[in-house]
Amino acid sequence: MTRLRPLGVFWFCLLFVPAFARDKCAGQGQITGQVVNEEGMPVSDAAVSILSEECVVVGIAPVAKTDERGRFSLSGVPVGLNGVYAQKTESGYPDMTAAIYGDGAFPAPKVVISAGATTSNVVIHLGKKAGVVRGEIIDVDTLKPVITARIKISLPDNDRIMLSMGPDSAGHFSLLMPVKPVRFVVSAPGYETWQYSEREETSGVIRVESGANVDLSIRIHKLQN
């Protein structure tokens, strides 16, 4: 005979767990500190953000800009464990919240935030500047831009650590590159997949040194019927 679970137990479980989660993540705090480059010099106008590792950020995630001394004050940080990141893409420092840019030399600081409290003197090291790959994606026959194309870079030994972007309306793109070998592939609906190939033994893999620029004119072929 099937036994029925008491209805009161069901409602207790349903209500108790969300309430516990809300209590654990209730409140916000503040982080202050400085952003520096690889030489330890302050970086002005860098954007500082967080990735919460325990609580969901409701609404717009907090972001702060550094001053001329590289100092920042970030409010509205959720309680619990947070990773603190910085970027300044116009100067070649990529968004370090994207795992593909991590190199292990300067890991993001982790801080535990308490409600109403300020965690001070957090130093974020930006590390080496990225390289840049820029260019265009063109239909080889019509010479028109292929705006539906997607560029994907990924680690050669782990395709799940990746970054994807598309070109602008003119088929042009500019992408900050990790300072390590990555696979560089372009795909588009109705077209053959294109991959970077400088030498046969490194097919699909490109390495761009810190601060270097690489220009590519990518011609892709339509799939044959």
List the helices and strands and how they pair.
Elements: H1 7-24, E1 28-36, E2 47-52, E3 63-65, E4 71-78, E5 80-87, E6 110-113, E7 118-125, E8 131-139, E9 150-155, E10 158-165, E11 172-177, E12 182-187, E13 194-195, E14 205-206, E15 213-220
Parallel strand pairs: 1-7, 8-15
Antiparallel strand pairs: 1-4, 2-3, 2-5, 5-6, 8-11, 9-10, 9-12, 12-13, 12-14
Brief synopsis:
With 225 residues, the chain is mainly β.
Question: Keyphrases for this structure?
Answer:
225 residues; mainly beta; Immunoglobulin-like; 2 domains; 5-stranded antiparallel sheet; 4-stranded antiparallel sheet; 1 helix; 15 strands; elongated
Structure, described:
This protein has 1 helix and 15 strands, in the order H-E-E-E-E-E-E-E-E-E-E-E-E-E-E-E. Strand 12 and strand 13 (194-195) form a beta hairpin. The protein folds into 2 domains: 10-125, Sandwich (Immunoglobulin-like), CATH 2.60.40.10; 131-220, Carboxypeptidase-like, regulatory domain (Immunoglobulin-like, Sandwich). The protein has one helix spanning 7-24, and strands at residues 28-36, 47-52, 63-65, 71-78, 80-87, 110-113, 118-125, 131-139, 150-155, 158-165, 172-177, 182-187, 194-195, 205-206, 213-220. It is elongated and about 65 Å long. The longest helix is centred in the N-terminal third of the chain and has 18 residues, at 7-24.
